Amino acid sequence: MKSQIKGTTMPVLEIGLEPNDRIVAEPGEFSWMTESVQMRTTAYTAGARGIWGAIGRAFSGGGLFMTEYSAPAGRGVVAFAAKLPGEILQVDVPSGHSYLIHRHGFLCGTEGLQLATGFQRSLGAGIFGGDGFILQRLSGPCTAWVELGGEVVTYDLAPGEVLQVHPGHIGMFQDSVNFDITFMRGFANALFGGDGLFVARLTGPGKVWLQSLTVPNLAHALAPYLSGHTAQNVESGAVGGIAGAVLRDVFGGNR
After folding, report:
1. How far apart are CA 69 and CA 242, in angstroms?
2. Which residues contact 35 (CB under 8 A, 6 or more apart)?
3. Distance (Å, rounded) from C-alpha 94 to C-alpha 142?
4. Residues 115, 46: contact at Cβ < 8 Å?
5. 8-65 pLDDT tens trace
6. Collapsing DSSP states into helix, strand and coil, what is residue 59?
């Protein structure tokens, strides 16, 4: 199997398949493929051995069903294009290790991958934490490709080192990093600062990948150019989570 990432702003992942190779992705993700490539859609793949495993994967942002791509009769090529401006990263996941990625970050991976829901400890706070709460846990052994939005900034956190991040900007981190959702410090900051009520705390050791572009921020930037209920729905999503919607109604703010 050979892979190549082409392009810059809107990259494309192109994978060359040999007869024994198999790639797993969510349905509808592929952009183009050669005629020799065969598709098989099933719920029982990517680590799901039963219906509850498939439902858990779907809850994390993955699909209830997944599609396997292979080229049993000879060589083939399948390509996956980025959905937003950003980067596609290759991640080699050894056995016994995992990565936590934002809920729509998984693009595709080789056989052996396991995709499940990744929780953090503070469930009550996390429900109000917006996009950063529900994460995908990507386990191996496998090679996978992850899509992150905008520019990607990486940090190698030392043991005990803490990085506070807006939940939507978390792209991916190693399983050795502790992830928790906490309240924004300061009453005025939380209610009137415009950054939301919650912040993610990432505690080392381990590597963290942050993304500069989030879907809610992009939607919020486009909202003034949309009309009617579409703009209101997009803006509501950009506020972030249940708490944001409640606060917007309480203070009567249509920005």
Report:
1. 38
2. none
3. 7
4. yes
5. 999 999 999 999 899 998 878 899 999 999 998 876 565 555 555 555 555 545 566 7
6. helix
